[in-house]
């Protein structure tokens, strides 16, 4: 004879709570999506559904990323509110100082979002200081110190200790990792790389500038 089991409300609720907790623990072990969308919005100019969204993937010590920035900046100035830009960071593994440079940008953005693009432009302007050959005999600690000094020139000397603390904050490390993982999840394998309204450009490494936008939009 089949025995019928009866459960109390407390037992049912306890079982549901167990399942929920197990799900949370499992999700945490699998790297939950970040709390906010990756990337830096240029000039905090966030568009609407009728705007053209450009997503640029840069490495701050990549010469090609550097060279693609002026025409893109010119196009953004020309089109104003019709175009908005989100920059994602992809620190390329063969650029020895790409990761620490990208982390510096996340620290700057955490301190004040208005610091991010001036520091990015500073990296582009003086990136040869952090090329592989220039730092081959420096320790990682020495490079971090150099980048702290370099960054405070762009954002102000009063932020020197805040930048040093930022490099000891695990959150900035995780944000930099998220940027790398996000970029690779979109199929990005080099820099610069561009998406327009969610679609990868046919020649993604070519600069997006005023002539390109005028031809297509």
Automatic annotation (TrEMBL):
Tagged with keyword Signal: yes
Signal peptide (residue range): 1-29
Gene3D superfamilies: Glutaredoxin
Source domain of life: Eukaryota
Keywords: Signal
Matching SUPFAM superfamilies: Thioredoxin-like (SSF52833)
InterPro entries: Thioredoxin-like_sf
PANTHER family xref list: ACR183CP, OS09G0542200 PROTEIN
Protein name in the entry: Thioredoxin-like fold domain-containing protein
Source species of the chain: Salix udensis
